[in-house]
Amino acid sequence: MILKYILIFKISLFVSLANAEGRHVPCPVVSPAQGVFSAAQIKKGALVAVQAGDDDYPVILVLYKSENGFCREELVAKYSIEGAAPRVDSLFFGRIKGVVNLFVIVRWELRHGGLGTYGDLYQVYAYESDKNGSLAENKNITENSEMTGVEGYVEHQASTFRLKTALDVKNFIRRMR
């Protein structure tokens, strides 16, 4: 009986210490409605989640890698306020030169009537996987000028952004090859 309580105490202590470090946490459950998606393309048992952040970065992207019944939590990206809070419109996987990439389409509402600028600002981010099953920003894609734009008006001029959906981005990436 005492052995049972010691074992429970050790397990509780491990969970508390791991959570205090923010490194190992209970694994979330896949729930697209809650922003949690399978990332098995990156690493077996991995999950990726769009979560609430803080006041400066209200949306964060987190990778969870399953390890011994828990998940290692890895911060992939933080999205800042750019006049308005960011919204993740789409999250999907694709390959570039044989490497799996996670694509995230983020949108911010623009309302600068005095400047004649309003509509939505879009940015397509790409994160490539490495041999350890982690994700790092693929700057060759993210910093491509085609990956950002405004749908609406910029200084009273109509503006159209072509990469608002996963299908748009996948077709664009295919044409880049």
Automatic annotation (TrEMBL):
<protein>
    <submittedName>
        <fullName>Uncharacterized protein</fullName>
    </submittedName>
</protein>
